[in-house]
Amino acid sequence: MKEQILGVNVNMQSEEELMQLIDSDIRNGRKSRIVAINPEKVMMASKNSELMELLNESTYQIPDGIGISVASRLRGGEIKGRVTGIGMMDALLKLANKNSYRIFMYGAKKDTVELAAASIQGKYPKLVIAGMLDGYEKDMDKVARTINAAKPHILFVALGSPKQELFIRENMERLDVNIFQGVGGSFDVYSGTVKRAPVVFQKTGTEWLFRLVSQPSRIKRQIALPQFLFKALRAKDQGSL
Ligand code: UDP
């Protein structure tokens, strides 16, 4: 159940429905990968066919930025709300906690990933942190060996985009992992290095405004939003897959 927004596939299911599919992937030993879709990535992909392919070949494309659900709604589409990358990661952690699944955290700076792992373990005591590795190791064989030795069900890759998506594509086959999720700056949030927007911003879908005020350098990324909405409204590629 996917909808196309400027040529990029986006799942229409809610977070809960997606979690059921993912749990069944784990139980059946299937490999799947999750990528978060936001207006910035759609705009880049519309000018870069390789990136488009990279996003579209993922198993699940979740409607992350608020702009995606707004574009869908304005065009009469089925995507009702957002499923944020960090929200999905948290849902996966809950699932892992419930079933004592093993997770591996790969990415960010050494201190950050360690702090994030400690905070996650505190919040979810029954999941198993099978291993962690900072995102600055250059030897990819070593990265793959470390992950495989830990045998995780779920691998979170926090290298930023599109680096993390490329890493997942290039290594998915040799990695003995079920679920791959690219999570961008989420370890920074779990570690407390970067604060998530206060709940009022989260609830009203205005986290972008909070981020803009607290990190003004993000303006370049946010400027893409109105342009994206304009293009998405004019495009004719709407439809279900
Ligand atoms: N990062 C990394 N290795 C790299 C480049 C970046 O581990 O070679 C990490 C960086 O430390 C940060 C995250 O990737 O924790 C990128 O976060 P950002 O918010 O830029 O990602 P986005 O979700 O915006 O793509």
Automatic annotation (TrEMBL):
Keywords assigned: Cell wall biogenesis/degradation, Glycosyltransferase, Teichoic acid biosynthesis, Transferase
Pathway-wise, it operates in: Cell wall biogenesis; teichoic acid biosynthesis
Q: What class of enzyme is it?
A: transferase
Per the UniProt record, one Pfam family is: Glyco_tran_WecG
What's the superkingdom here?
A: Bacteria
Reactions the enzyme catalyzes: UDP-N-acetyl-alpha-D-mannosamine + N-acetyl-alpha-D-glucosaminyl-di-trans,octa-cis-undecaprenyl diphosphate = N-acetyl-beta-D-mannosaminyl-(1->4)-N-acetyl-alpha-D-glucosaminyl di-trans,octa-cis-undecaprenyl diphosphate + UDP + H(+)
What Enzyme Commission number(s) appear in the record?
Answer: 2.4.1.187
Task of the protein? Catalyzes the conversion of GlcNAc-PP-undecaprenol into ManNAc-GlcNAc-PP-undecaprenol, the first committed lipid intermediate in the de novo synthesis of teichoic acid.
Per the record, the similarity remark reads:
Belongs to the glycosyltransferase 26 family. TagA/TarA subfamily.
Protein name as catalogued: N-acetylglucosaminyldiphosphoundecaprenol N-acetyl-beta-D-mannosaminyltransferase
Organism lineage: Bacteria, Bacillati, Bacillota, Bacilli, Bacillales
